[in-house]
C-alpha cells in the first residue's frame, strides 16, 4: 500500500509511503491519492486533512522510472480526461488540506504542495522545480498555482531556474505558510488541523470555495458568487450559534 489513510478525531492523515523513491508518484499511487482524498471529502465526520510523506520526505514528484516502464498500469496518466499525473491536482475539495512538509517538495511534489490550502514546512524542507533539469514540464498545475500563490516574478524564478528554496526564503515567497524546526512539520500541521476543526465548518468551507472560484470570474460575478455562498451558510444557522458564543464572551479566545 503506497498511500495510508488514518484518522485522528475529525482530522484525516493521508501519507504517501514510498520512501525508497522519496515518495515519488507513479500511476497506482496517484490513483490511491484520489481515492484517499475522495474518502476524506465524502466523510461528514472529517473536517480537515493533513497530507504528508513517509520517511521525513514529502514528495519528489512523478516517479521518472515508472514513466519508462513497458507496463502501462505503472505509468502516470498523460491525458486531459481523468486524473492528473500526480492524481489529485485537478480536484477541488470541499474541505481544507494542510501539507506537512519535510525534505523534498519538488517537481510534481511542489505542485502537490501548492494544491494544498496551507503548507507547514520544516526549516530545511526544499521546494523547487527540479524537473527543469530533465526537460519535464509542469503538468499538475504548477504554472498556474505557483504564480497565484507567490506572484509571477517569484514563480518564474523557480520555473526557469529549477533552483531550491527553503526556510525563510520559502516563507517570504509564500511557498511555506509556517516554518517549524526539522522533524516537527507533521506535529505542527496536526495541531493546526485540530484547531481549525474546532471552528464552525460551514462558513470556513464557503469562504474557502469562494476564494478558489473567483479566479476565473470578473469582479461583479465574483462578488455575486461570494454573496450566494454566504447566504447558503447563513441558512445553516451556524452564524446564530456563533453570535450566541460571541455574546457569551468567546471573542476573548486566542486566534490561530
Question: What does it look like?
Answer:
With 256 residues, the protein is α/β, with parallel strands linked by helices. It is built from 9 helices and 9 strands. The mean pLDDT is 92. Strands 1-2-3-4-6-9 form a 6-stranded mixed β-sheet, with helices on both faces. The two termini are 35 Å apart. Helix 2 (108-115) crosses helix 3 (142-150), helix 3 (142-150) packs across helix 4 and helix 7 packs antiparallel against helix 8. The protein has helices at residues 27-42, 108-115, 142-150, 152-161, 167-173, 185-197, 201-213, 219-234, 238-247; strands at residues 3-8, 11-16, 48-53, 97-101, 104-106, 118-122, 126-128, 164-165, 178-180. Strand 2, helix 1 (27-42) and strand 3 form a beta-alpha-beta unit.
Amino acid at each position: 500500500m503506497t498511500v495510508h489513510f488514518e484518522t485522528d478525531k475529525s482530522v484525516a492523515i493521508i501519507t504517501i509511503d514510498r520512501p525508497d523513491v522519496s515518495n515519488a508518484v507513479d500511476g497506482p499511487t496517484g490513483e490511491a491519492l484520489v481515492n484517499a482524498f475522495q474518502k476524506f471529502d465524502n466523510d461528514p465526520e472529517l473536517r480537515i486533512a493533513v497530507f504528508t510523506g513517509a520517511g521525513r520526505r514529502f514528495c519528489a514528484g512523478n516517479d521518472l522510472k515508472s514513466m519508462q516502464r513497458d507496463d502501462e498500469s505503472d505509468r502516470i496518466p498523460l491525458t486531459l480526461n481523468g486524473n492528473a499525473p500526480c492524481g489529485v491536482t485537478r480536484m477541488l475539495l470541499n474541505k481544507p488540506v494542510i501539507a506537512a512538509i519535510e525534505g523534498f517538495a519538488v517537481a510534481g511534489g511542489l505542485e502537490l504542495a501548492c494544491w494544498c490550502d496551507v503548507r507547514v514546512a520544516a526549516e530545511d524542507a526544499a521546494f523547487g522545480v527540479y524537473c527543469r533539469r530533465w526537460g519535464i514540464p509542469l503538468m499538475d498545475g504548477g504554472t498556474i498555482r505557483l504564480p497565484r500563490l507567490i506572484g509571477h516574478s517569484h514563480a518564474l524564478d523557480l520555473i526557469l531556474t529549477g533552483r531550491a528554496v527553503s526556510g525563510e526564503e520559502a516563507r517570504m515567497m509564500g511557498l511555506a505558510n509556517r516554518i517549524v524546526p526539522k522533524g516537527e512539520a507533521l506535529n505542527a500541521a496536526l495541531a493546526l488541523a485540530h484547531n481549525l476543526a474546532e471552528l464552525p465548518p460551514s462558513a470556513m468551507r464557503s469562504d474557502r470555495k469562494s476564494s478558489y472560484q473567483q479566479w476565473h470570474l470578473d469582479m461583479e460575478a465574483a462578488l455575486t458568487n461570494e454573496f450566494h455562498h454566504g447566504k447558503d451558510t447563513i441558512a445553516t444557522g451556524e452564524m446564530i450559534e456563533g453570535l450566541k458564543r460571541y455574546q457569551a464572551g468567546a471573542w476573548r479566545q486566542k486566534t490561530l
